[in-house]
Amino acid sequence: xxxxxxxxxxxxxxxxxxxxxxxxxxxxxxxxxxxxxxxxxxxxxxxxxxxxxxxxxxxxxxxxxxxxxxxxxxxxxxxxxxxxxxxxxxxxxxxxxxxxxxxxxxxxxxxxxxxxxxxxxxxxxxxxxxxxxxxxxxxxxxxxxxxxxxxxxxxxxxxxxxxxxxxxxxxxxxxxxxxxxxxxxxxxxxxxxxxxxxxxxxxxxxxxxxxxxxxxxxxxxxxxxxxxxxxxxxxxxxxxxxxxxxxxxxxxxxxxxxxxxxxxxxxxxxxxxxxxxxxxxxxxxxxxxxxxxxxxxxxxxxxxxxxxxxxxxxxxxxxxxxxxxxxxxxxxxxxxxxxxxxxxxxxxxxxxxxxxxxxxxxxxxxxxxxxxxxxxxxxxxxxxxxxxxxxxxxxxxxxxxxxxxxxxxxxxxxxxxxxxxxxxxxxxxxxxxxxxxxxxx
Amino acid sequence: xxxxxxxxxxxxxxxxxxxxxxxxxxxxxxxxxxxxxxxxxxxxxxxxxxxxxxxxxxxxxxxxxxxxxxxxxxxxxxxxxxxxxxxxxxxxxxxxxxxxxxxxxxxxxxxxxxxxxxxxxxxxxxxxxxxxxxxxxxxxxxxxxxxxxxxxxxxxxxxxxxxxxxxxxxxxxxxxxxxxxxx
Lengths: 441, 183
Known about the structure:
The complex is a heterodimer. Chain A is of the alpha+beta class. In chain A, 51% of the residues lie in helices and 11% in strands.
């Protein structure tokens, strides 16, 4: 029976197309819930149009995953070496199966996100839990399992899990080389379509142009390539996602876009302090101060209930979480006292922590906050297929990528009422505070 | 180890890998760290799974990025035919000077692994580290042939003959590591 194709308009990809089976996933409760989870948490308090949700992002990831799959598996784009290493590439039925798994996994990869996405995930989930584990529980749950089982052929739930959350979060599962390459299409460090879509979409909605790059060109040049440099020529090695020579500049543009979006948007100090105020509110407002990992509870909780809770608590000093709630509701956030500085880091890589501890002792724990975070897996090394068919490393061929800095934040904030006093205190004491103590037995 | 002790350890490892002739890309640091944790019981606490070129830790990958962000490691092209190297900075030398206990305690372990791995390429490291991974997975009592077959099964691009050689080399390294620990 032919599949009806549904078209959904999208500001980034113009149309996202999906078939009846994918539409069943879209209509499921775990997926529909994403209509009510902001992609960028409270970022709309700084960038008012950044009110987009995980729902449209997940559709975009599916759309791009399908496009990348079609490019990298096209016979004209596959070398004999890769065909030998990945026999799946020569089997049409397997390719059809895995394309379907990939798009379904792309749809489901964010279903486990908590309200306001990443803002409070690390602090407010029980030990051992993260949004990927919740996504996995949903993909394996009865509602989604019924969809996988009803397909022809049925999808193995483990396959969907593997591609949706990847080996870093599914440590109990063993990935074949083929599966490892497919996970790179969704969540890969360099060209994962999750990253492509969020950069383009977040850039569009924040109005920050830095996130744009030529994703059409980049996708057209993606290839599955051997990872070993030419100097080890002849040695068999695992394949990975890379680019043909003509795509290197588009890949550089993506990674530069990521750098600028991190520095301008994701790590903006005011955005970060709103995340901290949200976390403070939630730890007072949620029962037991933590998010539940019960699936029914997860499906029933979105940004909507929490926004109502914030407004409610902000208006009533007797409600739990009143202080952080009013800071969010009335834009009365803590002020930046200290931001990391290369000279300080060279003296003490934990400079922010040292200043935070001293400020906390001086101004009181309730009045000071510390935020330290480094970008994860900032890898910019991937194989590049040269015009002479040699494999090179992007880290050698691209001077831009060689010099792309790793990004981190190390901010200390103080309550607005004390900000002037605290700034004077820091100016007078900074040098002494960031001394690194020598190791003692 | 706390974070600064771990940073001192990892930058010291990179330093020794480079001085033993290693290209010292991320794969080299990953595999060397796996051997240090698994064979020499260095308590770094990274969680390794079988992934890119054998055992791989996403947490270690994140930590190496963080060390770059903290000006303790930098990417530099030292071997133009390969990929970029992870090179310790002057700032990291200062950090290591302030952590003489950690650096001193593991100096022999680091040098042992750096000498064993210094001149090996990515494909050799993949075979060796996967052989060690398999040896731990199947248990040390499993025969060399069973371990080689398992390696070949997990990494089909590694031939059975290459797998046998890798298992033999891992057994030799394990004996030397035991002798080092008992000194």
